[in-house]
Amino acid sequence: KLHSDLDKGVGTVKYTLSGDGAGTVFTIDETTGDIHAIRSLDREEKPFYTLRAQAVDVDTKKPLEPESEFIIKVQDINDNEPKFLDGPYVASVPEMSPVGAYVLQVKATDADDPTYGNSARVVYSILQGQPYFSIDPKTGVIRTALPNMDREVKEQYQVLIQAKDMGGQLGGLAGTTTVNITLTDVNDNPPRFPKSIFHLKVPESSHVGSAIGRIRAVDPDFGKNAEIEYNIVPGDGGNLFDITTDENTQEGVIKLKKPLDFETKKAYTFKVEASNLHLDHRFHSVGPFKDTATVKINVLDMDEPPVFSKPMYTMEVYEDTPVGTIIGAVTAQDLDAGSSSVRYFIDWKNDVDSYFTIDATEGTIATNELLDRESTAQYNFSIIASKVSNPLLTSKVNVIINVLDVNEFPPEISVPYETSVCENAKPGQVIQTVTAADKDLSPTGQRFSFRLSAEASNKPNFTVHDYRNNTAGIETRRNGYSRRQQELYFLPVVIEDSSYPVQSSTNTMTIRVCRCDSDGTILSCNVEAIFLPVGLSTGALIAILLCIAILLVIVVLYVALRRQKKKNTLMTSKEDIRDNVIHYDDEGGGEEDTQAFDIGALRNPKAIEDNKIRRDIKPDTLCFPRQRPPVEDNTDIRDFINQRLQENDVDPTAPPYDSLATYAYEGNGSVAESLSSIDSLTTEADQDYDYLNDWGPRFKILADMFGEEESYNPDKVT
């Protein structure tokens, strides 16, 4: 209520209100000055309002007093319950925790005024979840209330928490929330086998490394606390088996470490221990965290292939061993209860396997072809053994045969075969170190010896010094060498090996004399170097050689022209030079040597006699004379030559070297007829050479020569 001292109660004063909530939340009676709330107030929404009031004259509208300010506070009442703003809650605590172990702290808020009364004082309590958990009424901390809570018994707990204001008194408002608590696992349980004995049956044909069975120990723990390690306790049969842990199922996988053999042992017994990998020291007092079980394995008999006595066979044989020689044997047995016979054969893969054969019953290996170590030094093939009772059951073994060397090749000098020596070389100087190579292969290594041949030992030029390490040195024995006297030396070196039988060879080394400087560096080894000391330059030597070549060309041309001129010139001898024109390309007995050439090749085909066996060679077999068909008149000379060429090609009595056959027959096509008397059927006395005078000046000498010959013929009547 507002009141001014100037208000006399006669209605001359008017009251006004302004500020927070004026007209909306609060209103004032203008005459009496009473202030009223026109709607409900919420302290949690606005705890106080600031207002301004003034008294005004009704008539003049002027303030009677200065404006005054006042505050209206909203008094709190308990109209809000506590609330868990973060609920519901999720928490965890390890199993087997002691009483009072911290789990979680919850917090509830109350919107009421904490400074006024008990409206905002909250107290916590558990409505559901006892007797496992407890809560502090003031702080809201939740703790375990029972010892040794076991996750394997119960893992999840749901706790209902209540928060009540007014200090928990009657009439207070309350709020609730849920807390889900999980017991986390600890390794408080050892692994346990569900049974004490495990029986397994394993075929004897099981492969090494294969899994032959599984056993499992049960651990109620979870995660890494349930990880189990399996071990075989040393004892009977433990060395034949191994066990590992399957990470997904935590089972123990038993694997085979060595082959099983039913005929050797039919059953094995051993113990397996299961233990945890991650131990918790708080529970050591409970006992050992491991368990033991017995495993019995029965081996099942299987029909197995034959077994070779060795995993691999190595044999040796000398090269060139006669075919059929036995060089070794392989052996395989059937180890099953009902032993069966075994048959052997070679696993053919390529042609190399054909060098050997094997006896199908005895397993002996023999040579099938001659062996050459230089061609193939080692043979590698497989032998297959099969059971007679079951041929499908086979086993294979590898056989290596080494071919031993027989000393059959002599050693030879390794390249080079040619060396050089300086003209200014001193005695005892090594000009070349030589080594030897041998195609034979000695098991202990070859030893070579070097020496000069007997015919070269007495010559004072060079010697061979054997270093006895498979090398030798070529040494000089003279004080200087002259290229003008001798440019090349040939040194025969004898090399012997150390195998049996001893093989040796004589190798000729070519030693070239060269011009060198004072340090022994070779300057030149060609022909030019011989003339250099005379004082001629290289250009002068080239000019001299060029002049010599020109002179040789001139001489050759001159000789060729002379020979051509001789062919065209007629001889004036009384002998009939038209009969034979014989050219000898080899040395013989002159004109009297009628065995050197068959002049029948120059005869006219019409006048030639029957062909005789050639006299310049001795035929290997008797060959009958050929009958040459006569050449028809007016046959072209080309056909004649082709015919003679074909006859010589098919002639079995022809010499096995190139020869020149000269054909003097010029044909029948000339109008002047043949000039040769070979084809003439008349005697020389019947010839009339007067027609030569009609041929012109070119035949004048020939006409005079034959005309003169007629005048001296005493038998002709003039």
TrEMBL record:
It comes from Eudyptes sclateri (Erect-crested penguin). It holds the Pfam family Cadherin. The keyword Transmembrane helix applies. It is found in: Cell membrane. It is a single-pass type I membrane protein. Signal peptide: none annotated. Residues 4-84, 85-193, 194-308, 309-413, 413-531 form the Cadherin domain. The lineage of its organism: Eukaryota, Metazoa, Chordata, Craniata, Vertebrata. The gene is CDH12. This is Cadherin-12.
